[in-house]
Each structure stands twice: as structure tokens, then as C-alpha cells.
């Protein structure tokens, strides 16, 4: 699983090159400090939070339209790391890191 974590970290850093550590910490916090759990939910999912959040950065179902704009229903795209990161990037570009309660 260590190699998987490294691959995941590289994807996160690539999606947020100007502040990779912020994004890494959001992923870490959103998965309750367990990268392996979050990775497994992404790869083997689906895992949804009680508040209808999913994927690496726990994007909320209110962002389903962003997934659809990328060609995926949220029920699929949320669990594809690159797609979840692309949607998270859209959210970040519009709202900043404060969009994630774990960052606030």
C-alpha cells in the first residue's frame, strides 16, 4: 500500500502545484488521517460520508454538475482519483481551501 500512497500523493501534488501540502492535509483530514482507507474507498469504493461526500477530497453531492461536465456521473467520477481531483480543483478555484471544513 505504500506505493499506492506515493502515487496518490503525486496525483494530489500535481493537481495543486501551488500548494500541494494544503491539498495533502485536506485529503488526510477528510479521510480521518487514514490515506489507506481513502485510497481503498476510491479504488474499491464506493464509500460515501453521512453528509453525501465522496472521493479523495470528499466532494459533496452538490457538485454533481461538475462531474457531469467532465463526462461522469458523480457515482462513478467521485471514485476515479484524477476526476475527483479535477472537481476538487474546480471547487478550490471557486471557493479556495475554505470549501473544506477540515481546512477551516
Describe the structure.
This protein is mainly alpha-helical and 104 residues long. The chain has one domain (2-12, 20-99). Helices cover 58% and strands 4% of the residues. It has helices at 2-15, 20-30, 35-44, 64-69, 74-77, 81-95, and strands spanning 53-54, 59-60. The protein has a two-stranded antiparallel sheet. Helix 1 packs across helix 2 (20-30) and helix 1 (2-15) packs parallel to helix 6. The longest helix is centred in the C-terminal third of the chain and has 15 residues, at 81-95. The chain is globular. It starts with a helix and ends in a 9-residue tail after the last helix. The model has no long low-confidence stretch (mean pLDDT 82).
**Percentage beta strand:** under 5%
What general outline do the C-alpha atoms trace?
globular
Average of the residue pLDDT scores: 82
> Looking across the biggest beta sheet, what order are the strands in?
1-2
Q: Provide the succession of SSEs.
A: HHHEEHHH
**Unreliable stretches, pLDDT < 50, 5 or more residues?**
none
Describe the sheet with the most strands: 2 strands, antiparallel
What share of residues is helical? 55-70%
Helix/strand/pairing category: mainly alpha
Q: State the total count of DSSP E strands.
A: 2
Q: Give the N-to-C terminal Cα separation.
A: 29 Å
Helix count equals: 6
Alpha carbon gyration radius = 12 Å
Supply the number of structural domains.
Answer: 1
Quickly describe the structure.
With 104 residues, this protein is mainly alpha-helical.
What key attributes describe this structure?
6 helices, 2 strands, 104 residues, mainly alpha
